[in-house]
Design brief:
The protein has about 290 residues and is mainly alpha-helical. Helices cover about 50% and strands about 5% of the residues. The protein has 15 helices and two strands. The chain is elongated.
């Protein structure tokens, strides 16, 4: 595996010439695929959660430590006189390239680490630990030492080498100290129970986006289908009471496009509903309907 510096050099070479695009880049793909292509679709949301958790300590360690302002001698006159502000040292300003490089570095570390994990950790969720008690024990808080060892030993050495080269890690044995809090934060994030649906109320209709009209809540899994949904395994119990906040017009339209069972089986989220062309056309049309002021 490439360290971060090696990956950047090879990437730059691949993008700088036609020959590179034909010969060098495929070599990178074979040994370390393009970062954007390494994450499976069903793992994308968990990867993004991990990247966010990892970014915290990396940004903290990379941040410039503010220098304490020099004490000024009080001049003659009023002791409480306002002193001039020195401002920020120009040398402490980070330019845009530095920020982009840091973002690339975090992306690299997150991808190298996440893709090395066991599959059950990459797709871990509230639903998964509710249905499998062994997962709840394996990834409990605090993380069992055996679990930590299993995760850390799969991470390629390129991660610790890159952290050391940027003075973010003293030696490879310090890697668990850096990553255990990140792992715990990630696991807590992806296994948190869903919110109480009553607290998800939006300020606008989730289909037509109008924000000046009263809203109603639409049971995404119609209540009449709950027993059948559980019996036939369409949904787990925690999802049954999920709702979407819709205006009356959009609420009625949703119930016209499909019956209760079809809504429960196929159209049980706002995102799925908005994939339908008829819903998209309706949203564009009704979104232009505005009440005249009297």
């Amino acid at each position: 595996m490439f360290t971060y510096d090696e990956w950047r050099r090879e990437s730059a070479t691949a993008q700088s010439s036609d020959r590179g695009k034909l010969e060098v880049w495929p070599n990178i793909i074979r040994s370390q695929p393009c970062l954007a292509l390494m994450i499976e679709d069903d793992e994308r949301s968990n990867y993004e959660a991990f990247r966010e958790c990892l970014s915290g300590p990396i940004i903290d360690k990379s941040a410039i430590t503010p220098t304490k302002p020099k004490k000024r001698k009080t001049g003659k006159g009023r002791k409480s006189a306002i002193q001039p502000f020195d401002g920020i040292d120009d040398h402490d300003e980070r330019n845009g390239d530095d920020v982009e490089d840091l973002a690339d570095f975090i992306e690299y570390l997150a991808t190298e680490t996440f893709t090395s994990w066991p599959a059950d950790l990459r797709v871990l969720s509230y639903s998964a630990i509710q249905s499998d008690a062994s997962l709840a024990m394996k990834y409990g808080d605090p993380l069992p030492p055996a679990t930590v060892d299993n995760i850390v030993t799969t991470i390629p050495s390129s991660v610790s080498d890159s952290l050391i080269s940027y003075a973010l890690l003293s030696d490879p044995t310090s890697l668990p100290n850096l990553l255990i809090p990140v792992f715990t934060d990630y696991i807590t994030t992806v296994t948190s129970p869903p919110p109480l649906w009553s607290t998800t109320r939006t300020t606008h209709c989730e289909i037509c986006l109008r924000d000046w009209i009263p809203l109603t809540y639409h049971h995404l899994v119609p209540k009449q289908t709950h027993a059948k949904a559980m019996k036939r395994g369409w949904h787990e119990e925690w999802r049954l009471n999920s709702v979407a906040w819709l205006c009356r017009a959009c609420h009625s339209f949703v119930h016209r496009v499909a019956g209760n069972e079809e809504l429960a089986k196929e159209w049980w989220s706002v995102e799925r509903l908005l994939e339908r062309e008829d819903v998209q056309r309706w949203a564009r049309w009704v979104g232009r309907v505005r009440w005249k002021k009297r």
